[in-house]
Amino acid sequence: MRRSRRGDVLRRPFLSLVLALLPLLGTAGAHAYLAATEPAADAVLEAAPAEVKLIFSEAVEVAFSLLKVYRLDTDVDLTAENARLRLNGLAALLVNRELASNEPSDNRVDVAISPERGTSAEIVLTLKGELPPGHYVVMWRVLSVDTHVLQDHYVFSVVP
Amino acid sequence: MTTTPKNRRNLALIPVLATLLSLLAAAVAHQSVVVGEGAYRVTVGLLNAPYYVGQIESLDLIIRDSGDQLIEGLEGSLIAEIIAPNGAKLSLSVWPQSGKPGYYTADFIPTVAGNYRIRVIGFIGEVSFDETFEHYAHADPIIQDPAAIRVP
Fold it and tell me: What digits encode the pLDDT tens for the residues A138-157?
């Protein structure tokens, strides 16, 4: 059978693309994820924590990651119907607005990060002292060492 | 590479194929409603048409703001309810579609042919909504009996 060299030329880029994508398919389900947090998601605390600890399944590049804690400007009553859905809806918009923002905000309550550079699976955010009662959003967009970007958030509440 | 008439013909096929692919994607219908007095648009459809009894169907739920920006991170504030033709209901949490911020999904398995309704309850910032979608697919009934395509 006579092979078409012109056809080979057209097929070659597609073959290269398929070959490039195959390894990605194999690793798609194995990216970093958030393994544990303190306080936990949806936790209701009697006293404000001094810090927030995030533990990922593998190390993240701190210098290329964003991690923040904000106070939610709302007085949602946790005993009300759909309180969790309502809080999460408010938190999601806050994350969309603030995570990548460089604008200072009075509602931001984290003051330090540890470690400040390098790679680590455990990140600790030190919070302002004596946080008032309310709802707080922990938000992050991290670059894991496998180069995958992970973005998410959760809410905890302080109700004395 | 030498440009020949045949090469030019083959290259000309690429935009045609791209257009056909986009038309195929558009043929999978969705239904949108505007909520929050125009603040957000909620769009609902199903992935992987056509839809048959006994198959896993995946919700395609998309949230945009009035500026057409996709809103991500809402998986904790949205609930989807699948309503079967006989009124049976299944409440589902949704999760983000991989690599598509602002797109959410949930799986269910329809067990009878007919028109299923999809109710979405949610909160986006200060906006709450409760909408039911009936015309999210180009098929009647939306969920088909697979007997017609079964062999042997």
Answer: 999 999 998 999 999 999 99
